[in-house]
From TrEMBL, chain B:
InterPro entries noted in UniProt: FIBP
UniProt record, GO biological process: platelet aggregation
GO MF annotations, alphabetized: fibroblast growth factor binding
Domain of life: Eukaryota
Protein name per its UniProtKB record: Fibroblast growth factor (acidic) intracellular binding protein a
Gene field: FIBP
Gene Ontology CC entries for this record: nucleus
């Protein structure tokens, strides 16, 4: 089905001087789409040309509309020689293809040149007319909405979650084609930019087709990545979660979402079963999927190196480890008890029809997430080979298929039927590639996945279920577990249900201490929980959270080919193990018991491997309090040695005490007595051994009823352990007034002001000493990260009190002896006064916005006072108090901002003249505090290359990269503004590849950014006027000084 | 181990005002770090000198990238590269165009040429303002001069619109442009006691009273130049000193009015003819461009110094000039009242401003 693309070139401004003689430019514009090109007239002798062209019309297939970008080239007319290009603008017209997104692209866009950067701006108008036939969106995937956001977008309601979609396209990298030797760097860069733009478009279209096949209308949590494989090619791959979204009618209050959800929530099992059974029967049995994982031994399993069809193709599957709380175990647990089996059947059947029960979402509609098992992850080392036939990217597909299968089997081993918070990544060095995937094994509520269920019988259930909430409440009040609450036999209250173990307690996939849930006292929970998802809104948290990082560096010998791959794959399990140990220790040191948003990145370089694990630690009220850390010496003979140990012990204890204070973690003591907990071993302990051989013994030892040592024991039997303890204690404390996390929001902080600042920081370090030991490298790497954080705190000190949210670290080894660390995050300030009030009242997980808070309150209200048992509520504060306090905080939000911040936010004075530039906010989060997103305008996915041959003149590497990143931000903002938006949410910089050659005075950098362009409005009019409105007002009232 | 690359980029560019000032003042990064350390910026932060250095570098880079835009401030408002809140833009511009009064005093009235720029190192050594800062200030003067030179209409308003400066700063720039254009001599030793603000005030007076634009805003001409016709008319004032009767008459009128009102009456009476000759001669010579340059030195030599040596107070001066100006109106044969008022109005306020130690 064809469509008509129309473009109009209005004007240019700030163009560079192209003619030295006149200090002016004779500019004209070429507009190209597919193979059709139009030209404007030359506008002679001006740096601010007014072309005001006619509408250029392209009649094209919608397939092309999806794949191709609109390419605008600005040139300087030259009578005697070839016209000089000033720069280009690529416009992705995909947002115009969905009726719910943007309708027009109009505005000033920077003209970009890969050698010179931004060179002026051009004002364009772009529209699309799609021919209206009934089958409008069925032939291609036009109209499928894409969201980078990994939660259900704010102004939509999810009707169905269809599941995993993935696609991958490959091509030759233009940079490595023979022609590259004879063409200019500019031509080569442009070829690359254009190719990637095309490939992204194609990828999106193909994914869209899959979504339509599944019956969905949107992709949420869309994650697109590039693998620059060098000689062997260019891979663009994407994953996402296909959904059916219903748009909430405009004007409805945000809490309508929650209302709808609350109503549909009691939708229950019996009827759903009926809907579901046919499809279930037709599919293979849950167990048939089995576990294909071959490496089930904890650490030293033989590295299975399989050869694939190509002779060059080499692959090493990395043995996966079994960790406490971090189940990447391959061993299949025996089928759980009858109750669990039933549960599994219910839910599994819904997922069974999917090849991969995998979801890229990290944040879920209430009731979606039933149980969480733990982190599942898989890595695989591959040798790259030239992609022979770009049209058949089978090898790469097969690699990922394999990985996803493994992830799936790991999840099964954890007794889970699904994986959530799933992501994939690669690290490439020369011909070696590490493919990684990780996610969180989980049990999901099948209601969201069952086709037709909601639409047909939904209203009936709702009606019939109306009395239930009250009933549920009374039941639970009497101490009965409501079996119908969520439609599961072993239903659990929402605030703790997700932490209940999904696996069978007698056949645990990894060693863990199980206790009864501290919240409901009915179900078993693990002692620690690691996840890759965001903290569920309904989770109850004590105190605040904090960023926890584990960092590791391992040297490796330089090698080629298979030898190299094998040595890397041999190192990987040790690194994972070390990182896990560090995470665990640091978690204990902060007196916390759960990690959210866990990302483990392992980067490969020629002579080293870097591992960086980041997560947000919290104290989940439903989980047991973590024990302390105890240091034990192996040889307690020497007096001074003992002394040394006791000093260290004291330091650790002090740190723990300090951290408890800092993060406000004051769990109620001796809660067990009150309830009469059936847990024999009151003080939890776990034991972590230095040597891996011991840990296998531990497996057999595991039995929760057996007594354990008092606390987490660190045995100092070698220098490694001393190092560990040192590194534990050398983590610099966060300066007062700062909090940090890598999740969407900080547990325990609710009253955000609208003050926010998104930033990107990149550092490259050169290791001067070539012969570094592992310990030396570790120290350096840790210092790098710590110093970077310190720098961030210092730079953002004017925003105090504030929280650095979504701190996303990426590490790379761009060259031998170089380490690159890039951080993107958003600093958000909050109100201190109301914060304290809220703290006192209660801490409830993730008050990321009003809706969520209100939702949890409504939940409580509907399930009556049932939750209110003092025993079950650690803080023991009545519900009403919490409701009250949060209302207070929301009303205080309207009050003027504190001085320091208001200066940066409010524009008290406006410039007397000049066209106002729309203020575009950018954030890696899916929301902007104090605002409501009213429209999603489409996905922004941009790829830029910048190159220079005059590095010194541009201020060296730092000057070069600084201006490039600033330019990328500027171009993103301009494109958002042209779509009519005022913010970009879920922003991420996925790729930042930097290469330099100082001797030749050259450098090159590639950056890939993405996010969702949105329109937001303030929640309250009394609130401080946002910069956007101010600037608009300025424009409308007319500049006061111009007369 | 060394940091090879270190950048920090924010979406909303907010610069530290303190660092910005250090940059404007021409401090090197290392010196700026020292100053900041001494200023106690690290107190209460868990930060080291390294952190401070990295932060300073980042900010310096941002300033350097912004500098191009600051050269044409109107662009700053509609450029896309940096998202800077409007009130911050105002601050950036205002600070960038601010100047040191010691520096401006040195170049005031000089030709804003390459030659002058070459001598800036001497100025820097003399004033203690860093060479970098001197160059920025000099370039600012020159840039404003070049833009305004070509424009028609009121000078201050032109500067305000093209450089988005505050009224005060725009007026100062107008003075600088005016001085540079007319090449008023300000460097002579006798003029050293005068501050830039004294001159700026005088320039303001001259601009608003003696230029073409002064009388009629609608006139499509610049007010960088003094009005030629007016200068011609000033020649007519000579009659006040050439005509003996008129001079005596004028003197007796002034003396009658002053008698008993000031302690310096005797000196005033004795010097009247000299002083009057001085002021009228200045007026008569202004048609000659070279003499225009000496306007201020003449005022000081011919009028201010004699009065000062006679120990007139500021009050005396005001009294004398008021009566001197007003008495001329009573002279029957003196027909140039309008020109006289236009001349003396400016002279009076200039002298009053300049009459201090």
């Amino acid at each position: 089905m064809p469509g008509k693309l129309k473009a109009k070139i209005v004007a240019g401004r700030h163009l560079p001087v192209m003619d030295r003689a006149s200090d002016l430019t004779d500019a004209f514009v070429e507009v190209k789409f597919g193979n059709t090109t139009f030209k404007t007239d030359v506008f002679p002798k001006s740096l601010n040309p007014q072309w005001n062209s006619e509408w250029f019309k392209f009649e094209v297939d919608d397939e092309d509309l999806q794949d191709e970008p609109l390419q605008i080239t600005v040139l300087d007319h030259d009578t005697y020689s070839a016209n000089d290009a000033i720069g280009k603008v690529y416009i992705d017209i995909d947002p115009l293809l969905s009726c719910e997104a943007a309708t027009v692209i109009s505005g000033w866009l920077p003209i970009y040149d890969t050698i010179h950067g931004i060179r002026g701006e051009i004002n364009v108008l772009v529209k699309v007319d799609l021919f209206n036939d009934l089958n409008r969106f069925r032939q291609s995937s036009c109209g499928v909405k894409f969201f980078c956001t990994t939660s259900i977008p704010r102004c939509y309601r999810v009707a169905l979650v269809h599941g995993f979609v993935e696609e991958l396209v490959v091509n030759e990298d233009p940079e490595y084609q023979w022609i590259d030797r004879i063409r200019t760097p500019r031509a080569s860069n442009e070829a690359r930019q254009r190719l990637i733009s095309l490939m992204s478009g194609e990828l999106q279209r193909k994914i869209g087709l899959k979504v339509l096949e599944m019956g969905g209308n949107a992709v949420v949590g869309y994650l697109q990545c590039f693998d620059l494989e060098g000689e062997s090619g260019l891979v663009v791959r994407a994953i996402g979660t296909a959904c059916t979204l219903d748009k909430l009618s405009p004007g409805t209050a945000p809490n309508t979402t929650t209302h709808t959800n609350t109503h549909t929530l009691p939708n229950t099992a019996p009827t759903s079963n009926a809907c579901n059974s046919p499809s279930k029967d037709s599919k293979e049995s849950p167990l048939a999927h089995g576990c294909r994982s071959t490496h089930n031994s904890p650490v030293h399993s033989t590295c299975s190196s399989q050869r694939l069809s190509h002779s060059q193709n080499f692959s090493v599957s990395v043995p996966t480890l079994v960790f406490t709380g971090m189940g990447s175990g391959g061993s299949v647990g025996k089928e759980a008890g009858p109750l669990k089996t039933l549960l599994r059947q219910h839910t599994q059947s819904a997922l069974e029809q999917r090849e991969f029960p995998i979801f890229t979402l990290t944040c879920f509609p209430p009731g979606f997430l039933v149980h969480v098992g733990g982190v599942v992850s898989t890595r695989s080392v591959k040798l790259l080979d030239r992609i022979h036939n770009p049209d058949e990217p089978e090898t790469r597909d097969a690699w990922w298929e394999e990985i996803r299968q493994e992830i799936k089997s790991h999840a099964k081993a954890l007794g889970c039927h699904a994986v959530v918070g799933y992501s994939e990544s690669t690290s490439i060095c020369e011909e070696v590639c590490i493919l990684s995937a990780s996610g969180t094994a989980a049990m999901l509520n099948p209601r969201f996945m069952r086709e037709g269920c909601l639409d047909t019988g939904g209203s009936d259930h709702r009606l019939s279920r109306q009395p239930h909430p009250g009933m549920v409440g009374s039941e639970r009040g009497e101490g009965e577990v409501s079996s119908t609450w969520l439609g599961f036999e072993d239903a659990s209250p929402p605030s703790c249900g997700f932490v209940h173990i999904p696996y069978d307690e007698f056949n645990m996939p990894f060693p863990a201490q199980l206790t009864y849930c501290y919240h409901c006292r009915r179900q078993k929970v693990p002692d620690v929980l690691f996840t890759t998802i965001d903290l569920p809104a309904e989770a109850e948290v004590t105190g605040k959270g904090c960023l926890i990082q584990a960092r590791l560096c391992r040297t490796k010998k330089k090698a080629q080919g298979e030898v190299n791959a094998t040595s890397i794959s041999n190192l990987l399990p040790f690194m994972e193990y070390e990182l896990h140990t560090q995470l665990m220790n640091k978690l204990k040191l902060r007196s916390m018991n759960a990690l959210f948003g866990l990302r483990i990145q392992i980067s490969v370089g020629e002579n080293m491997l870097l591992g960086l694990a980041s997560a947000t630690g919290v104290y989940l009220s439903a989980l047991p309090a973590p024990g302390g850390i105890q240091i034990a010496g192996k040889t307690p003979s020497d007096l001074s040695y003992d002394q040394h140990i006791s000093t260290m012990q004291k330091r650790i204890d002090d740190t723990i005490a300090k951290n408890k204070e800092l993060y406000n973690i004051h769990p109620p003591e001796c809660i067990e007595e009150v309830v009469g907990s059936p847990i024999p071993d009151r003080q939890r302990s776990s034991r972590l051994f230095r040597s891996t051989s011991e840990s296998s013994d531990e497996l057999s030892e595991l039995d929760l009823s057996h007594g354990k040592k008092d606390a987490f024991v660190l045995e100092i039997d070698d220098t490694d352990a001393v190092e560990d303890i040192q590194s534990l204690l050398t983590d610099a404390p966060i300066p007062a007034g700062f909090y940090s996390c890598n999740t969407e929001v900080m547990p325990g902080i609710h009253n955000w002001t609208s003050g926010l600042q998104m930033f990107t920081s990149v550092r490259v370090y050169r290791l001067s000493n070539a012969n570094l030991t592992n310990q030396g490298l570790n120290k350096i790497f840790t210092d790098l990260c710590e110093n970077l954080l310190k720098s961030l705190y210092f730079k953002l000190r004017s925003m105090i009190p504030c929280c650095l949210c979504h701190l996303n670290f990426t590490v790379a080894v761009p060259e031998e002896e170089l380490i690159q660390v890039a951080v993107t995050a958003v600093a958000m300030s909050f109100d201190k006064e109301t914060q304290q009030a809220a703290d006192k009242a209660l801490t409830r997980g993730s008050g990321e916005n009003e809706e969520q808070l209100q939702f949890s309150m409504e939940m409580c209200g509907e399930s009556t006072i049932s939750n209110n048992q003092p025993t079950a509520k650690p803080s023991g504060v009545p519900e009403s108090a919490m409701v009250h306090s949060s209302r207070v905080s929301s009303s205080e939000r309207c009050s003027p901002l504190p001085e320091g911040r208001s200066r940066s936010l409010r524009s008290t004075r406006s410039l007397p003249c000049g066209a106002p530039v729309t203020v575009v906010k950018m954030t890696p989060l899916s929301f902007l505090p104090g605002t409501r997103i009213v429209k999603y305008l489409g996905i922004i996915n941009m790829f830029f290359i910048r190159e220079t041959t005059s590095l010194r003149e541009e201020g060296g590497v730092s000057g070069f990269l600084h201006s490039f990143i600033a330019e990328v931000f500027a171009m993103v903002r301009a494109h958002v503004a042209a779509l009519g938006g005022n913010a970009l949410v879920s922003y991420s910089m996925k790729e930042c590849v930097f290469m330099e050659n100082p001797n030749k005075n050259q450098a090159q950098c590639l950056i890939n950014v993405s996010g969702d362009a949105v329109i937001f409005i303030r929640e309250s009019d009394q609130e401080a006027i946002p910069p956007l409105l101010t600037s608009r007002q300025t424009s409308s009232t007319g500049a006061d000084g111009t007369t | 181990m060394s940091v090879e690359l270190d950048v920090f980029v924010v979406n909303t560019t907010i610069m530290d005002e303190e660092v910005y000032q250090l940059w404007l003042d021409g401090y090197t990064v290392n010196d700026a770090v020292k100053v900041r350390m001494e200023g106690g910026v690290l107190e209460g932060c868990e930060a080291s000198a390294e952190v401070l250095h990295s932060d300073t570098m980042d900010q310096y880079r941002t300033f350097q990238m912004c500098e191009r835009l600051l050269h044409s401030p109107v662009k700053l408002a509609n450029q896309l590269l940096f998202q800077i809140p409007p009130h911050r833009q105002v601050m950036l511009i205002e600070r960038y165009y601010a100047f040191d009064s010691v520096f401006v005093r040195e170049v005031l009235g000089k030709k804003l040429s390459k030659g002058t720029k070459k001598d800036l190192d001497d100025v820097s050594a003399k004033t203690g303002v860093t060479l970098k800062s001197c160059r920025r200030q000099f370039d600012n003067f020159k840039r404003v001069f070049k833009v305004v030179e070509e424009l028609k209409g009121p000078l201050v308003e032109n500067i305000r619109q093209h450089f988005l400066l505050s009224d005060k700063l725009a007026r100062d720039y107008a003075a600088i442009v005016f001085f540079a254009n007319n090449r008023f001599e300000t460097g002579k030793k006798k003029l050293h006691y005068l501050t830039f603000q004294d001159f700026a005030f005088c320039a303001g007076q001259l601009i608003s009273n003696w230029t073409v634009g002064a009388l009629d805003n609608m006139v499509e001409d610049m007010d960088v130049d003094l009005e030629k016709e007016f200068l011609q008319d000033l020649k007519e004032l000579k009659i006040l000193i050439t005509d003996r009767d008129l001079l005596d008459q004028h003197k007796s009128l002034v003396c009658t009015a002053l008698r008993g009102k000031t302690k310096a009456f005797n000196e005033m009476e004795a010097n009247f003819k000299n002083l009057s000759r001085g002021l009228v001669n200045i007026a008569a010579k202004l048609t000659n461009t070279k003499e225009v340059r000496d306007f201020f030195i003449d005022l000081v030599e011919k009028f201010i110094e004699p009065c000062r040596s006679d120990k007139w107070t500021a009050g005396d001066m005001r009294l004398y000039l008021t009566h001197y100006t007003n008495s001329a109106h009573v002279l029957d044969t003196f027909k140039h009242q309008v020109v006289w008022d236009r001349y003396m109005g400016v002279i009076k306020s200039c002298i009053l401003k300049m009459y201090h130690d």
